[in-house]
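Regression test case RT-17, inverse folding.

Input:
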């Protein structure tokens, strides 16, 4: 097991409805040392890529993405969730369905911060059905930017997102892939990588 798998096995809590809670170290209370290690690991995995910006989505991707951006020495931009319908033309917009909240949000990024010259590393905490990543990819496409790769902390391998994104030809790296989990027994199995 790698460092993240070990931490998930120790502190992750399996909830009914295919939800894994990691709020004691990743997306409510944050273990900063762990985030730093995640940042270093993505730098190692995407070392050969020419990354000019890290792109993520609020809120829980932001912490990790900061540490990744620091490793690459580039800015981090996060897509903001917006309820407003009349978004002016200065924004790239995508629609994202939330896996955890079951609602749809428009996510926006100011056109000032993504350009066709940008080479993006897209980062998020979880990958389930892939809606969040598809929204970020769509924003990158609208900007004419290049997606160099996608880095995920925890992929739930039994949901379709990972397969969809890899089938589109993207370099998707997940630090931990959960193959199966059981809410009653509280067990988590990881995919060998
Ligand atoms: P997707 O868009 O791939 O269906 O879901 C990814 C998003 O939903 C992530 O940004 C994450 O915030 C949230 N998410 C999906 N599955 C889980 C989960 O099992 N646990 C937690 N904490 N968040 C999840």
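Golden output:
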């Amino acid at each position: 097991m790698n460092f993240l798998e070990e931490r998930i096995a120790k502190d992750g809590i399996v909830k009914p409805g295919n939800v894994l809670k990691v709020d004691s170290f990743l997306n409510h209370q944050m273990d900063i040392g762990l985030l730093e290690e995640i940042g270093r690991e993505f730098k190692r995995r995407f070392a050969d890529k020419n990354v000019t910006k890290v792109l993520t989505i609020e809120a829980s991707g932001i912490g990790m993405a900061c540490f990744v951006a620091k490793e690459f020495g580039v800015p981090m931009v996060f897509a903001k969730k917006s309820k407003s319908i009349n978004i002016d033309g200065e924004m790239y917009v995508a629609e994202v369905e939330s896996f955890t909240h079951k609602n749809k949000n428009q996510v926006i990024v100011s056109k000032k911060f993504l350009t066709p010259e940008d080479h993006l590393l897209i980062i998020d905490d979880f990958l389930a059905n892939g809606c969040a990543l598809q929204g970020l990819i769509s924003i990158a496409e609208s900007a004419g930017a290049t997606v160099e790769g996608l880095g995920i902390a925890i992929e739930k391998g039994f949901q379709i997102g990972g397969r969809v994104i890899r089938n589109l030809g993207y370099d998707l790296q997940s630090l931990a892939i959960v193959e199966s989990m059981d809410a009653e027994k509280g067990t988590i199995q990881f995919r060998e990588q």
